[in-house]
């Protein structure tokens, strides 16, 4: 799927880092200064109306783009191949001509937990999966429960996931369904590292009866799913320098790939801002965690799936 203009929301933009040696600090400072020039030039264009989003000195601002890409692609979605068929059933479309709301933001309806931080662990897939199921649990019960990403990291290896070295949301949903549920985050907190499985059936916060895949390369189908069902797990290409330094606005990157997907996030809404259609996306980084991604007819950057709860 090709995620288009996107709006991302996050916790904070403040960053502090320490380095192993003065030479390493000097090296990082030079990269930071180079990236700062890029940020300033981009934001001048944004101020003049030529760019729909702004860049900033994010957590990754002291990295060259190749370093950042290695970090992002080191795990997270593992060896995902967008050309392979998925195992979920297909989302059933609405009747042609059905009206959808112009704007959707499931945060306003109570479907979305606060921004979380995956830290140094390649567990974006787990955060995307719990976010979708948290929304479905709220839809069914009216109670928003934060679910355990750490359980998915520790326990879903037999379903093809590799903990902090990558995984996939579909595999997480299959594990939760077969396991009979997933614990709450409170009972099984996040540690950002691989541990032994400590699932406790007495602490289950939600169950899942399966998931469906939204047709790839079909933005209207994704819009229907988000509007009528709730937050949807999506995979995006997060490798671009513009995403590395993104802070706010409607993110629109022509270089984004529809096949080389390396990051799992959560689509929590859509809308239009200053003539730009966008998707509202929840990230799992300590900055830029809410992002507006621009919509385009080519549909780049994303592949969606969503869980459904047991009745």
Overview of this protein structure:
- It comes from Pundamilia nyererei.
- This is Cathepsin L.1.
- Keywords: Disulfide bond, Hydrolase, Protease, Thiol protease, Zymogen.
- There is one protein chain.
- This protein has a single domain (5-16, 24-308), classed as Alpha-Beta Complex (Cathepsin B, Chain A), CATH 3.90.70.10.
- Strands 1, 3, 4, 7, 8, 10, 11, 12 and 13 form a nine-stranded mixed β-sheet that branches. It has a two-stranded antiparallel sheet with strand order 2-9.
- The protein has helices spanning 22-47, 65-73, 124-141, 149-155, 169-179, 219-228, 241-244, and strands spanning 5-9, 53-55, 89-90, 104-105, 182-183, 204-206, 210-213, 232-236, 246-249, 263-273, 276-282, 290-294, 302-308.
- It contains seven helices and 13 strands.
- The protein is an alpha+beta fold.
End-to-end separation in angstroms reads 30 Å
| CATH overall fold name | Cathepsin B, Chain A
What would CATH call the homologous superfamily? Cysteine proteinases
Query: Mean pLDDT, as a whole number?
Result: 84
Unreliable runs: 80-85, 296-302
Count of separate structural domains: 1
The ordered string of helix (H) and strand (E) elements is EHEHEEHHHEEEHEHEEEEE
Structural class: alpha+beta
Largest sheet: 9 strands, mixed
Bulk shape: globular
- Strand fraction equals 15-25%
CATH class: Alpha Beta
How many distinct beta strands?
13
Just name the CATH architecture: Alpha-Beta Complex
Compute the number of helices. Answer: 7
Radius of gyration: 19 Å
In quaternary terms, these chains amount to single chain
In percent, how helical is the residue content? 25-40%
Domain Peptidase C1A papain C-terminal: 100-301
InterPro entries: Papain-like_cys_pep_sf (IPR038765), Pept_cys_AS (IPR000169), Pept_his_AS (IPR025660), Peptidase_C1A (IPR013128), Peptidase_C1A_C (IPR000668), Peptidase_C1A_papain-like (IPR039417), Prot_inhib_I29 (IPR013201)
Protein name: Cathepsin L.1
Family: Belongs to the peptidase C1 family.
């Amino acid at each position: 799927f090709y995620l288009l203009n996107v709006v991302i929301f996050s916790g904070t933009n403040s960053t502090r880092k320490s380095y192993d040696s003065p030479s390493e600090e000097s090296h990082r400072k030079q990269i930071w200064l180079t990236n700062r020039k890029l940020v300033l030039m981009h934001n001048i264009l944004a101020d003049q109306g030529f760019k729909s989003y702004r860049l900033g000195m994010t957590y990754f601002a002291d990295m060259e783009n190749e370093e950042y890409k290695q970090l992002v692609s080191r795990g997270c979605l593992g060896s995902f191949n967008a050309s392979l068929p998925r195992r979920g059933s297909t989302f059933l479309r609405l009747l042609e001509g059905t009206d959808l709301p112009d704007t959707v933001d499931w945060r306003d309806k109570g479907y979305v937990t606060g921004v979380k931080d995956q830290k140094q662990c390649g567990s974006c897939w787990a955060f995307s999966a719990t976010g979708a199921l948290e929304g479905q649990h709220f839809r069914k019960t009216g109670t928003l429960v934060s679910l355990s990403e750490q359980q998915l990291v520790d326990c879903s290896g037999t379903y093809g996931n590799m903990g902090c070295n990558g995984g996939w949301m579909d595999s997480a949903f299959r594990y939760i369904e077969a396991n009979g549920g997933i614990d709450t985050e409170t009972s099984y907190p996040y540690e950002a590292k691989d541990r032994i499985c400590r699932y406790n059936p007495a602490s289950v916060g939600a169950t899942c009866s399966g998931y469906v895949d939204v047709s790839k390369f079909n933005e209207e189908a994704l819009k229907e799913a988000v509007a009528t069902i709730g937050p949807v797990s999506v995979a995006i290409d997060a490798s671009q320098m513009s995403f590395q330094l993104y802070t706010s606005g409607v993110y629109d990157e022509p270089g984004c790939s529809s096949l080389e997907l390396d990051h799992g996030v959560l689509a929590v809404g859509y809308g239009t801002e200053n003539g730009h259609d966008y998707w509202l996306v929840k990230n799992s980084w300590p900055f830029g965690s809410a992002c507006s991604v621009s919509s385009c007819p080519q549909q780049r950057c994303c592949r969606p799936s969503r869980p459904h709860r047991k009745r």
